[in-house]
Amino acid sequence: MNSHMNKNRKILVVIIVAVIAIALVAATWASYSFPFPVSDFGERRFPPSDYIFGDLELFYVAQTVLSTVNVALLIFLLTSYVDIYRKTKSQFTLGLIIFSMAFLFRTLTANPLFMWIFGFKAFGLGPFALLPDIFELLALSVLLYLSAKY
Q1: Mean pLDDT per 10-residue run, the chain (150 residues)?
Q2: Which of 30, 37, 50, 92 could form a Cys-Cys staple with 121, CB 3.0–4.6 A?
């Protein structure tokens, strides 16, 4: 029983360290990759000057970090479900694998870095750019905790 708890703690520590490392890499890459948004269709209207300068870039860097962390959690979750499926051959677990893959593709394509690679730039969403990723992070954390527990 004690060795099982130690194994779970080691797995949890490895996951946490990996997620932190991925978040740091994503933050560094995003902070250097996102110039101030400029449109190919002409000049955009910027927010009034009483806004804090740089707050838009901060939101998109934070969204990139959260989205990248969510991708990492989904990969951990997907590998956990594949391992469970190998042991049980359960149809429900197969459904969870398909759900995780669909959610992984959704999270990858919603990542601002993915959009930036293909030449698109988000602008003007402010803190609302972060909300879906925050809720997704909470849900994935619960799923990963429950999957690791059992």
Answers
A1: 61 73 74 54 49 62 86 90 91 92 90 78 69 88 81
A2: 37
